[in-house]
Amino acid sequence: MLVIIEVLVTVASQFLSTILISDFMDSSFINSNNLTEVGIFRPLGFTEAAWWRVPPASSWTFGELAESFSQGPNFHDTGHTYRAFIPFQDEAQRTSLRSFQGPAAVMDQRVVCVSPSFVDLRLNSTFPPRLFGQMTLGNESYPILQNMETQGPINFTCALPFPSKNTTYGMSSLCYPLLALTSNIQLEDPLVNINPDDRIPLYSGYNNPLASPMLIVLDILDGVAMMARNLENITTPYRVTTLHKDGPWSIIMNGSNTAALRVSSCFTNLAAKTFTVDMASSWQNWEPRLSWDRKSNSFDTESVRRQLGASLTPDSLNHRGVLALNPRSEWEDFDMRINAIENDFNEFDTYFHFTTTFLNLLPTPQQALTPPDFPRANQGILLSEANTADTSTADRSYTDIFKDVLHDTNSPALALQALITRGTQAAYYENLMREDPIASALTAFSSTALIPARWDGFVAGLTGRPVVPTTQRRTEARQSTSKLFNEEAKDSNSTSLGVNKEVMASETVDATIAELLSTFNELNSHVVEELNEEPSPLEFMRFVARNTPFVVRGGASSWKACQEWNSAYLLKALKDQTVNVAVTPYGNADAPTQHPDYNFSVFAKPHYEDQPFDTFLEYVVRHETDPNFPQDAEVRYAQTQNDNLRDEYMALYSDVQKDIPFARIALDKAPDAVNLWIGNSKSVTAMHKDNYENIYVQVLGRKHFVLFPALCYPLVNEKPLRPATYIRTEDGLVLQMDDNDEPVPFPTWDPDRPSENTTPFSQYAQPLRVTLNPGDMLYLPAMWYHKVSQSCTEEDEGFVLAVNYWYDMEFSGPLFPTSAFIRDISLANTSQATQ
């Protein structure tokens, strides 16, 4: 037995001794379940915190179970959006939480907004501006709102921001009018069902707590139109009309019949209740920070809006960094050990705490500036970039989130829901740190540790080929060097000695480069790794660290683009749109090309021209599918690499993801560009490399990639090529030399014609080849050489379409300088050999 143990220990020691430091990486793993004490949310009575004036301390993550957004005639509905507050003050605990089973406060943050009608509507355009009159809702029928038919006219006086400039962006307000206690409009299927008793009216004083609170969203469309009377020195309020309804909005016209602002009436339930729930996440949770954009002079809210799901097409919960909440039918009531009637309404305090903190504490806007004879505004806040001196103006963090959601979705329901989430979270976490009651929850957190993530050292130990040159290769190099020195000794001519030294150095460099390429080929796979689902940000970062590609089969198959795009869809979406097209005679845009008038190759750039999209697409399809199409016809390819999907193809942008979540989280940046590519099999992209981390998504047709890492520079035969551009003439496309004679360094070796334009190292080429089918997603690492061709099948309708996301590479670290060093050594060696 001792002998066996000793053998095992020896083998293990020998195995472990081969592991290199570079084989270790930070890796995440989930700890086992443990009981953890958590706070039970029980409010401490009324608070006086003005949540709208203080920026949120964090972008707290949460658990969510949500229905899809829906819309109909005159309404928007976010759908039931159950969100559970995570009962941990520590951000590290919240973001590393992978599973939770225990008590948590849950709120249904569903918001329904409808377009109201008005009676005797008036606008005061002097300072402070007001919209007041009566609102009627009973004429409409919304199945999602109960008791609408019993609601009488609602008196309201809503404050508006004073537009300091004519703007249509970021000038809104939120208004909370007084309703009679008999008002009982209620969203269908409320989360909290309360049995009323005769004490309930004493709790609130106004606005029936059993009804869904109503908030009025007002948004200025035209500052000049709204303030026109003020500019004419007319100080009295004047009657305005509603010209039409636009979804959940009623458009308000000024006295000159110009659209001045829009109004929507929104309903939500802020009652919360503690349940025993399950929450889980397979990725690290995310609490993004707001960053200030100096160019726009506002907060960049994109990451926060993504986490909140404030979009018509929100990302998955994993991509948003949010935990998944188990189905409502599986929740269990948690015994708070209090009784509403016997204990001073503590139960009601729990249910209605957020109504108190989010709504009842709202201020009276512009109160200090309101003349005594002027109508006092209802409670509310100004969501405005101006008027910041008024205490009713919300902090820019709230204002910018609200205005950006409104601008991106045109939905008051989604904008208000984002505001509710942040405001109620601020109230929850302010209260949580002072909680005494505790309970136990079963939790599991992720941890990060340094563990072996690759086995280069072990492989090298087994194969006898370490990462550095082997003994045999080093001996051969020494023998080669010795031979050269012996030959030099026989020649006493100093010139000859100098030449031999240069030959010796060149051959030694050749051997070293050959060793580099051979070692890489032996230690790395010759196929692109395939995944069946998107990687987590941590898994993606491992590929980035190794500078290694992968393909996710079907990774984008659920995208609207992959499900609905075809020629008919594109022609409808881009009707009357002009697009920029690259035109070449052979599909050789940006490629080494033999100039017909000279005995050398040039870097051939395409002729660019604008074409109607329908004309362009028809040409591409006929060129691919029509056997009678001229064989020598020019090739057209939509390949502008200028973020074109967010420019000339903007009509299609909402059908794809705005970025790739695992890349955005791992790299901590948004894509520099999102590009659309449309062509056919006639176009080929010559081998080149880009300084971007590239996520390539195939939508229609097939793309065929040939890939080489950056260290393969010695085999691609880069040469300085004079630039030339195709121009359209009466005789067709002519390749004309550019006035700028600055040469373009570009690879001239073609992996599909491997015997031409070779270098001594082209024999070491072991390309990775991968074909992308519709719905596939490729990660192409920064600085990898790639040649791309394409093909169509019958179902592709004769054209190929793809989308790619460019993320700026990280230039610090060893990748870029090492690649530059290999290039410099190769260039110097080639120059020396030529001499």
Automatic annotation (TrEMBL):
Domain called JmjC: residue spans: 635-822
PROSITE patterns, A to Z: JMJC (PS51184)
SMART domains, per database record: JmjC
Pfam families: Cupin_8
InterPro entries: Cupin_8, JmjC_dom, RmlC-like_jellyroll
Region (Disordered): 471-495
Xref: Gene3D superfamilies: Jelly Rolls
Annotated protein name in UniProt: Phospholipase A2 protein family
Organism: Aspergillus arachidicola
